[in-house]
Amino acid sequence: MVVSRRHAEEEVKRTPLKRTTYLNPMSKKRRKDAIEYKALREAFLKELPVCEVCQKSKSTDAHHAEKRGKNYLRAETWLATCRPCHDKIHREPKWARQHGYLK
After folding, report:
1. DSSP letter at 71?
2. Do 53 and 101 meet the contact criterion of CB atoms below 8 Å apart?
3. Which of 65, 56, 64 is nearest to 84 (CA)?
4. Scanning 12, 26, 73, 80, which has the fewest C-beta atoms within 10 Å of its C-beta?
5. For residues 37 and 52, what is the distance between their CA atoms, to the nearest angstrom?
């Protein structure tokens, strides 16, 4: 006897999963790095208060010129930028590479 797939699925009763513990939204190592990053970023932006791209606006973002991975906590790879310049760097990667804002 051939049973249609839809008919077979209707007969299966599924119970909802019940979690006994909650998933951690962030690993312990990542959380530790995030706390360290926040402190480094604040000090970095205090040290460089003007955007390094336009030289006019107040710097509000720490742009990672090299990929974040292993350079996440290395301030020497960061660039102090205002939000509009940071957006432009990511919106126009060719321009950013020509000016050394992306590597």
Report:
1. H
2. yes
3. 56
4. 12
5. 20
Query: At residue 1, does pLDDT exceed 60?
Result: no
Q: Could you give the count of Cα atoms lying within 13 Å of 93 in the half-sphere of its Cβ?
A: 5
Distance from C-alpha of 53 to C-alpha of 63, rounded to nearest angstrom: 11
H helices of 16-82, where? 28-47, 68-71
Q: Which amino acid, one-letter code, is at 76? A: E
Tokens standing for 66?
Answer: 């090299």
What does the block give as tokens for 27? 């690993």
pLDDT digits (tens, 9 = 90+) for 42-77: 999 999 999 999 999 999 999 998 888 888 899 999
DSSP designation for 101: S
Residue 52 contacts residue 82 (beta carbons within 8 Å): no
Q: Which residue has the tokens 């060719």?
A: 94
Instruction: With cut-offs at 50, 70 and 90, classify the pLDDT of residue 36.
Output: very high
Domain boundaries defined on the chain: 49-103
